[in-house]
Amino acid sequence: MHQPSPVPSVSPVVYKGSRGGQRVRAIHHPFPQSTIRDLCKAHRDYGRDSPYFRGLLRSDLDAAVVIPADLKQLFSCLLDSTEFKLWVAAWRQQLREALPSLLRDPETAVDNNGNPLTLENLMGEGRWADPSDQTSDIPIKALQIAREHAVSAFFGMVPDGLVIPYYKIMQGTKESFTKFVERLTRAIEVQVTDVAVRDGILREMVFANANSMCRSAI
Question: For residue 42, what are the CA distances in angstroms to 49, 51, 149, 196?
Fold first, then answer.
């Protein structure tokens, strides 16, 4: 049986203190090509919906501070040109909706130059297209939120074929509980745009639509 390769590591942005510890300097390192190759191979071999690929992508990104340029580079390798444009549009819309709350948060309201955070900041566009500016001027928390929405937009892309409403997804009598939850999670990610309510919907649907054997054990 083929075993997945080990999880690669990635650290695009590294923070180093100056002598005396008075100032922290951010240094950007592009994604290693080996990391991108491993992620693309996992995506190709196991599919976007596979637990292995999803876990690999999330663990890789969660372990690092990444900038918009890194995210665009990575997802341009995982998607074809049309899919990439759709992903960028979905990511932009999610960030546009998130921006008002970011402007109310003291940790993300302004960039590192004291200017109000903008959608261009979060997307790495216009004045912020240069990776070095993204690295030095965008607050870490804002980068983390931009990353989360990038991943959400990726997994929320509508798959090919018929889309079954999540509330109609029932666990088969011989289907494993894990497989059922995976199918339901995927459908909710695609159909429910509000990330904050997804977990609650998942719990409700799992209990309502599990088969009788699993429901009695929940």
Answer: 11, 10, 21, 28
Cβ-contact 73, 39 below 8 angstroms: no
In a shared domain, residues 91 and 134: yes
Predicted TM-score (pTM) of this structure: 0.69
Q: Please, which pLDDT band fits residue 216 given cuts at 50, 70 and 90?
A: confident
Q: Which residues contact 11 (CB under 8 A, 6 or more apart)?
A: 29, 63, 64, 65
Q: Which of 41, 67, 77 is nearest to 56 (CA)?
A: 41
Evaluate whether 39 touches 32 at the Cβ level (below 8 Å).
no
| Structural domain count, the chain | 2
Same-domain check for residues 183 and 112: no
Question: Quick one: the chain helix, strand, coil %, rounded to 5?
Answer: 60, 5, 35
Range of 85's domain?
33-156
CATH of the domain at 82: 1.10.375.10
